[in-house]
Specification:
By secondary structure, this protein is an alpha+beta fold. The chain has helices spanning about 1-20, 185-190, 195-200; strands spanning about 25-30, 45-50, 55-65, 75-80, 100-105, 105-115, 115-120, 130, 135-140, 150-160, 165-170, 180. Bound molecules: calcium ion (CA) (2 copies).
Length: about 210
């Protein structure tokens, strides 16, 4: 009898943990790229602020002080290396990005890397973007960014006004990528594992699970 009782106790405890909200678990992190460190024509990436809310929505706020509004010729791409491996995804070795959050010619587009090529055809409902106060905001839920807890990211900005586009990168090419850890209540982003669902079905009085 000791074995089954112990197993039930563990399952019940885990269920309670899943049900317990982690109030105020959302977080934020600052990043910085040099000011005026690129050709003057390029959108100048400087302060970057990344945060997430308890629902797992990730917000990227990117300061571009030399823009009051984005020009039609401006391109900003935020590359998410969801698995932290530059050898997988698109633009391998340089970015290794699985997802791209872009604004191009006033259009906000979401890219997925499929077999080494970008697919911009399916826009997740959580994706969005805006520009105000010289700050570009891009957002997406982490479930649309591979569902990972931690990811690497890089930002590229270009102005395609002349024969030679002017670029700024944050962080600089050749340096380590920036990294962000999503902190959100588990029940907002994951299902309980199969063994736990089974245990809870078997012992419903000891373990209440919210239905999804
Ligand atoms: Ca810069
Ligand atoms: Ca990758």
């Amino acid at each position: 009898m000791r074995g089954p009782r112990l197993a039930l106790g563990v399952a019940g405890t885990a269920c309670l943990l899943l049900l317990a909200p982690l109030a105020g678990a959302s977080n934020s992190s600052p990043y910085a790229d040099g000011a005026a460190d690129a050709p003057a024509a390029a959108p100048d990436l400087t302060a970057v602020h990344v945060s997430n809310d308890d629902a797992g929505n990730v917000f990227f706020r990117i300061s571009i002080p030399n823009r009051a509004a984005l020009a039609y010729t401006d391109l900003i791409s935020l590359f998410v290396d969801a698995d932290g491996k530059t050898g997988t995804g698109c633009a391998r070795e340089a970015f290794g990005a699985e997802y791209a959050l872009d604004v191009l010619s006033d259009r906000y587009v979401f890219g997925r890397c499929v077999h080494g090529s970008w697919d911009f055809t399916r826009r997740p409902a959580s994706f969005g973007g805006s520009f105000a106060g010289s700050t570009l905001t891009l957002k997406a839920n982490r479930r649309d960014l591979g569902g990972v807890t931690r990811f690497h990211f890089r930002i590229g900005a270009a102005s395609a006004t002349g024969a030679d586009p002017a670029y700024d990168f944050a962080p600089d090419i050749g340096t380590s990528p920036w990294s962000f850890q999503v902190v959100a209540p588990p029940q907002a982003v994951m299902k309980p594992p199969a063994w736990l669902r089974k245990a809870c079905r078997r012992y419903p009085r000891r373990c209440r699970l919210t239905r999804r």
